[in-house]
């Protein structure tokens, strides 16, 4: 499992882009984690799935609500990562009003989740291999804080915890 002090694993995440610009076309665009985190401070949080109850009611809304405060604490970007495709993440982001606040990053084949060692097997619930619920503060590609939730919990990967950690690192 990834630890504080480790570099993020090399992986490709996808984001559904709705407005063409900054070298990105409309539709799904691929981003290499190494290039996308270079020289930046990223508040990354991952969750089991788009449109699932805790993720939709608490996890994403907390980061959307705290986005300005996280930026003021030195966070350049906020990423929500889930084992879903870019189309689903894009639609969910629109519904959550995440535009310009939280990047909804798709890990469609769970490659990033597997590379971090933070997977959750929900096969018995018909959802297959997913990401565990966690958050991490990443500075120039290196994990500075890591908050992994226990099974069925939502206690340490929330936006308030991340904000406190970002403020402490500033």
Q: How would the blueprint of this fold be written?
A:
Elements: E1 12-17, E2 27-32, H1 33-37, E3 41-47, H2 53-72, E4 77-82, H3 86-95, E5 103-106, H4 111-116, E6 119-122, E7 128-131, E8 134-139, E9 142-148, H5 159-169
Parallel strand pairs: 3-4, 4-5
Antiparallel strand pairs: 1-2, 1-5, 3-8, 6-7, 8-9
Helix pairs in contact: 2-5
Task: Characterize the structure shown.
There is one protein chain. The protein has 170 residues and is an alpha+beta fold. The chain has a single domain (12-169), classed as 3-Layer(aba) Sandwich (Glutaredoxin), CATH 3.40.30.10. It is built from five helices and nine strands. It has helices at 33-37, 53-72, 86-95, 111-116, 159-169, and strands at 12-17, 27-32, 41-47, 77-82, 103-106, 119-122, 128-131, 134-139, 142-148. The strands form two sheets. A seven-stranded mixed sheet has the order 2-1-5-4-3-8-9. Strands 6-7 form a two-stranded antiparallel ribbon. Helix 2 packs parallel to helix 5. The longest helix is centred in the middle third of the chain and has 20 residues, at 53-72. The protein is globular, with a radius of gyration of 14 Å. The two termini are 26 Å apart.
Envelope shape: globular
Strand order, largest beta sheet: 2-1-5-4-3-8-9
Give unreliable regions as ranges: none
Number of strands: 9
Q: Mean pLDDT, rounded to whole units?
A: 94
Helical content, roughly?
A: 25-40%
């Amino acid at each position: 499992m990834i630890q504080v002090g480790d570099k993020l694993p090399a992986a490709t995440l996808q984001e559904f882009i709705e407005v063409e610009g900054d070298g990105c076309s409309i539709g799904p665009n691929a981003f290499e984690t190494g290039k996308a985190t270079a020289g930046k401070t990223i508040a990354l949080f991952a969750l089991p799935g788009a449109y699932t109850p805790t993720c939709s009611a608490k996890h994403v809304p907390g980061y959307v609500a705290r986005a300005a405060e996280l930026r003021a604490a030195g966070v350049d970007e906020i990423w929500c990562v889930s084992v879903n495709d870019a189309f689903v993440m894009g639609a969910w982001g629109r519904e959550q009003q995440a535009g310009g606040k939280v990047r909804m990053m798709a890990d469609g084949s769970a490659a990033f989740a597997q590379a971090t060692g933070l997977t959750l097997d929900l096969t018995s619930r018909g959802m297959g291999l997913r990401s565990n619920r966690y958050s991490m503060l990443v500075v120039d590609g290196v994990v500075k804080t890591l908050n992994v939730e226990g099974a069925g919990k939502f206690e340490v990967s929330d936006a308030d915890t991340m904000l406190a950690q970002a403020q402490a690192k500033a």
